[in-house]
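Give me the fold.
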Amino acid sequence: MLTTEQRIKMLQCPQGTADMVLDTDAYNEIDDQYAIAYALRAAKLSVRALYAAPFFNKRSRDPGDGMEQSYQEIFKLLDLMGEKRPVYRGSVQYLPDEKTPVESEAASDLCARAMEYSPDHPLYVAVIGAITNVASALLLKPEIADRIVIVWLGGNALHWYDNHEFNISQDIAAARVVFNSGAPLVMLPCMGVVSEFRTSLPELLAWLSDKNPLCDYLIQLTLDYAGRFAHGKVWSKVIWDVTTIGWLLNDQEKYMSDMLIPTPIPEYDDYYAQDQRRPLCRYVYRIKRDALMADLFARLAEV
């Protein structure tokens, strides 16, 4: 079990090169692709593996289909960037309860990979979808909780009127496993915090147009998305998932502000419960939108 001092140290922005894995529902929307590319282009980050996460909405038949389409989308992006990384299929379903893991390639890899790390040299686990794969790994091998730092975009701000957010609502059991595991956790709330991280077509065209095939692909993805949900309307788009990568690059709080709080408890009624006796987590409460967007665009536009 981690001491409070160890936990606080692990919850600081990493100094120097950081080893990480990225768990992503890459086909769910369009922001995962920006985050994957950002992580691969950041010299400070060593992306050791990518995991496909389940999701279920209009873009998938069921959670397993969402995972499989995400798995294929990860390879599409890697090929576009000329990159190679280990990629693992994740869970085909959500947790049936808080005690039963769903075994998958991703959960098995995380169990094995995390054991190579320690509290002094943790593995950073960036999660930008339902947190099923990570919860399963923690249930399969609870001792990895002291060797990883989980950076998750999920849930809404503590001041928001409810916690009905896509990533957390898909698998609340998994969220509860993670929040109760004792693993150091960085929370990036969606509505009320990360919702400020928006871009628009003129900005994308100004900074990314004709830079490289990756940028062209990202612009087209965003245009297609806007065409489905905001055709004929004024629109901007939150690039949610980028902020998880931004926190790992957040030296001296140049991209966001955060604080330590007792880890809240996700409840099945779409609210958080709080207990001041719980272990500390790091809670992001402000995104410095322009600084983070500028760094994202600069890295994506690299040839």
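Residues 28 and 242 are 15 Å apart (CA to CA).
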